[in-house]
Write a structure and sequence with these properties.
With 291 residues, the protein is an alpha/beta fold. It contains twelve helices and nine strands. It is globular and about 45 Å long. The two termini are 35 Å apart.
């Protein structure tokens, strides 16, 4: 019953202009920052680890802006799920799309997309024009999982796999002219990861990007989403495909990826997913900063 009410609310909200969603999201995000103590604590710990040179006041300001952007992205979830394609074309502005087009003309492409707010909507939107593969993390609620899968597959261009399906299923489906919409920067634990620096912090990072590129022959095109609702749009920046990737050293490839993400975070620090426990997995004998 609650899920149906939530979906009905998202359907109603998707009719609002993005500027209106931004104003409501800012208000609700301020309230969430005040009352959701655990996520506020995680966000401030992450910011302190990555930006020790900032003052406490600077970190609090960015953390509050993060909550406002996060709440706005939740309110706008229905835009990707329910908005018509003509409306989405008006709302999404591409920059550097020629880099993606050139890479797709040469073979399969991995869109390396860090966790900035709006990535779900843009992944759905891209599948209207490009054959895309996305990798979904299953939810404990099977009904919710089915709803998410249905909306992410709303256009025929989308093929959605679960992380549990494994890399072989993805590679079998990955064809020239297709794009894998890949979000690389989450903590899936030390078993699947190597520890490489992210803002100077040894961080459990899955080295799947160079492995996928090596096995598929795909080119890497970075894709960064900017949720600019105060300007009534999503802005999506595509970057030139990476040369000499993958290289001979998987660790160095993963460091290169993290350095790229760091640079993009500095451009819009409040819209990165700081409320995720990015540094939960630690090297042996090193305690979790969230303990």
């Amino acid at each position: 019953m609650l899920l149906r009410l939530a979906l009905a609310l998202l359907w109603l909200l998707h009719w609002l202009p993005l500027t209106a969603l931004s104003r409501v999201g800012a208000l609700l995000g301020s309230l969430a920052f005040t009352f959701i103590h655990d996520r506020r604590r995680v966000t401030l710990i992450n910011l302190k680890l990555c930006f020790p040179h900032w003052t406490e006041e600077q970190r609090v300001i960015v953390a509050k802006q993060h909550f406002q952007a996060f709440m706005t992205s939740i309110l706008a979830q229905g835009v990707g799920w329910y908005a018509s394609l003509p409306r989405l074309r008006r709302l999404v502005q591409f920059e550097g799309k020629e880099h993606l087009d050139q890479a797709l003309a040469q073979g399969p492409v991995i869109l390396m997309t860090p966790h900035f707010f709006g990535v779900d909507t843009i992944g759905i939107y891209l599948s209207a024009d490009i054959r895309t593969i996305t990798i979904n993390t299953r939810h404990k609620n099977a009904t919710l999982d089915e709803v998410i899968l249905r909306h992410r597959s709303r256009w025929n261009g989308a093929t959605v796999f679960s992380r549990q399906d494994g890399i072989r299923a993805v590679l079998r489906a990955f064809k020239p002219g297709w794009a894998l919409y890949y979000l690389p920067d989450q903590d899936f634990g030390p078993k699947e990861s190597i520890f490489v620096d992210f803002f100077g912090i040894p961080t459990a990072t899955v080295p799947a990007l160079p492995r996928l590129a090596r096995l598929s022959g795909a080119r890497i095109v970075p894709c960064v989403v900017h949720q600019e609702f105060d300007r009534g749009r999503y802005r999506v920046c595509f970057y030139p495909s990476w040369e000499a990737f993958p290289g001979p050293d998987e660790r160095e490839d993963t460091v290169r990826m993290n350095h790229f993400i760091e640079a993009r975070v500095l451009e819009q620090p409040a819209r990165y997913l700081w409320s995720h426990k990015r540094f939960k997995a630690r090297p042996p004998r090193e305690p979790s900063p969230y303990a």
